[in-house]
Design brief:
79% of the residues lie in helices and 1% in strands. It is mostly helical. A two-stranded antiparallel ribbon has the order 1-2.
């Protein structure tokens, strides 16, 4: 059995803590467009919701496909080099996105942020495996999910508060400065374990053969689709369009709407481990997913279509919406159980790619529907969208949840697969 010295364990905890800081940082960068939507659209020349959605979704166009090779790259090069490069890419991407009015340059920046972010979670887990005893691994994985949600909560509230007192340029200086400082910290602190042996050759062909086998499974695509539809609570509502909808439809300030959105992130942090525990207890993935989908549908419909809801009730609804939509994490377990002969890491990578590709599709789709339903009102160089416009566009979420329920009914009948 491998022995771990006290010094090694403490160093491993420090390395994982620095990696976790990067994970929180990239999570905050993910939600920036949603919080500063009006300011950014003006800075880019009063772009429409459709264009803005496409610009934001470039994050996922980089992040999603990188889920496949990132594990192999970690095995080949180690966490130190890749986390350093990843944080640098996020910082540079944040600079390009925040300080250039050119859509093309900003798009490259957003793409770089997505590329760098794709290494964060796997990088921390790789560091944990390298430096810490196995008994700490599950704890680190669980804490990472919680830290990600806490990063979203803090980012929502803090950035919206800063937007009331600082200019867009000053806020961007903070993001970029924090990113480059964190890049230096990663370079100074994160190290690869000298006892680890990294493969000199990437098993590219074997890996993609495995991916090909998994992608041929109709069941895997249905499971991934279910995950992508449940993930719309984050990819559509939490990250991009929810803030503006709550502000307009419920007459909330930027700070108030950010606080309300944060309750959904808290719900995810609470619901994810609970749904996993219940799923194991009852030995079923479909039942918790079905329950989560139905109640997510109920709560998002109340949030979208019920007028004159008080802030306190909105907060409760958002919390419950987050708790029930967090059952999305069960699709990873369901996928692993569906392909018994597959490599778990590869299966998780494929499912995560399909789930996050939903963000690349749904974010610009909502923007496109907003533009179609809008009457082209422009006030002070800003496209003005009414609550009805948002209700029509965000109806994509309940439609997705209805499709989730139907997909679960279909997949529960093994004769269909």
């Amino acid at each position: 059995m491998k022995e771990y010295s006290r010094h090694q364990i403490l160093l491993g905890i420090l390395i994982c803590a620095v990696g976790a800081m990067f994970y929180c940082y990239e999570f905050i960068l993910r939600i920036v467009p949603g919080i500063l939507q009006n300011e950014l659209r003006i800075s880019f020349g009063n772009i429409s919701a459709s264009v803005f959605g496409q610009l934001s979704a470039l994050y996922y166009f980089a992040y999603s496909p990188m889920q496949l090779p990132v594990g192999i790259l970690m095995d080949r090069f180690g966490a130190r080099k890749l986390l350093f490069l990843a944080c640098f890419c996020c910082s540079l991407g944040s600079y390009l996105f925040g300080f250039y009015s050119s859509i093309t340059v900003a798009g490259i920046g957003r793409f770089l942020v997505g590329f760098g972010s794709s290494f964060a979670f796997v990088g921390v887990l790789a560091s944990a495996v390298s430096w810490l005893p196995q008994k700490y691994f599950s704890t680190v994985a669980g804490l990472m999910t919680t830290l990600g949600m806490l990063g979203l909560v803090y980012g929502e509230i803090k950035i919206s508060s800063l937007a009331n007192s600082l200019t867009l340029a000053n806020i961007n200086y903070l993001f970029v400065g924090a990113g480059f400082i964190l890049t230096i910290i990663i370079f100074a602190v994160v190290k690869d374990n000298p006892n680890d042996k990294y493969s000199k050759e990437l098993p590219i062909l074997d890996f993609f053969k495995q991916v090909g086998v998994i992608l041929k499974s109709k069941r895997i695509w249905i499971i991934g689709f279910i995950g992508a539809c449940l993930y719309t609570s984050l990819s559509i509502f939490g990250e991009l369009w929810g803030n503006e909808y709550l502000a307009i439809a419920h007459n909330l300030s930027k700070t108030q709407s950010a606080k309300t959105i944060s309750y959904m992130f808290i719900g995810w942090g609470i619901g994810a481990p609970i749904s996993g525990f219940i799923s194991d207890k009852i030995n079923s993935r479909i039942k918790p997913l079905m329950l989560g989908s139905i109640f997510s549908l109920v709560f998002i419909c109340i949030i979208l279509y019920t007028p004159n809801v008080s802030i306190s009730h909105l907060n409760i609804l958002m919390l419950l919406y987050g708790i029930f939509s967090s059952t999305e994490i069960l699709v990873f377990i369901m996928a692993k159980e569906s392909i018994l002969n597959g490599i778990p890491g590869t299966i998780f990578a494929v499912i995560n790619m399909i789930v996050t590709l939903g963000g690349a599709i749904f974010q610009p789709l909502v923007g496109k529907v907003l533009d179609i339903s809008n009457s082209n009102n422009i006030i002070n160089q800003v496209h003005i969208y009414t609550p009805k416009d948002y209700q029509i566009a965000l109806s994509i979420i309940p439609i997705c949840l209805i499709l989730t329920v139907l997909s679960l009914l279909f997949i529960s009948n093994k004769k269909n697969i």
